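EI: anyone free to look at a 331-residue chain?
SC: sure, send it
EI:
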Amino acid sequence: MPDPSLDVLCIGNAIVDVIADATDDFLTDEGLVKGTMRLIDAGEAERLYAHMGPGRQVSGGSAGNTAAGVAALGGRAGFIGQVAPDQLGEFYRHDLTAAGVEFITPAADVGVPTARSMILVTPDGHRTMNTFLGAAQHLPASALDEEQIRGSAILYLEGYLWDPETPRYAMIRAIEVARRASRKIAFTLSDIFCVDRHRDGFGALLDDGRIDILFANQAEIEALAGVPHLDTAIAAVSGKVETLVVTRSEDGALATRGGERVEVPAEPIDALVDTTGAGDLFAAGFLVGEARGLGLERSLRLGAICAAEVIQHYGARPEADLRALAGELFA
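SC: here you go
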């Protein structure tokens, strides 16, 4: 195969985030569980938007955040996702391409607007997401640029996109194209919500050897394995993938590959402001490390640096110079 034109190609929901402060009482009054993600319809999206406080608008979506993080580190990043031909869709495309990400998937009129997520951030920095998937859940396999997939060193897929049937088939097709081109395939479990709904589907991907790099936080890997114990869960899953990466918030992160297990601490921060995008940016750092052959320990450290940066401000896109923060890791 020729050398890749992209380091990481991300496939996921193209979502515009609307981020607002909220109190714990507001979450209680709305019947929301802090720190979770729920899917809502257009009517609930309008109702909640009317009740929440002033919001800041930024292009988001898990895989889109990761792609932006890869680009911010100087990596060659691409994104595949569905937007509608509307104002939010134009905003999303401009915002992502301005960040240096290749986004060539055409907009499509599928009868619903571009997706948006109302993200409520409580004073402790935790975020509660209320997501209307809109056009994002209608990504068809026909929208894939298979040459783009074949030309990417790593294909990165978000578990959130597995929920609707149409993009699930697109993801399976993308995996097939990448596998035939001998490219690496990475997958993130995304949320316990996704694991609980699709444990069998995710398990089949692993059992069939379709995933090379699996990302999960501690709760997600334990849910996937069906055991409330980290090391037992790791033992149950690690043999099914080449590389397993588990993030543990303030307890750092670990990765396994073959008989190797590496752990790194969380990077120190001045203040926790908003955890939105922490896992997405961790994945960006780790994947850039993988693309550059840095090894598990340095790739984990790079992920931790990126995650630490993004949780110290609102929004899931880096504001500081990630390449400068990485320092000697790129030396």
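EI: The radius of gyration is 18 Å.
SC: 👍
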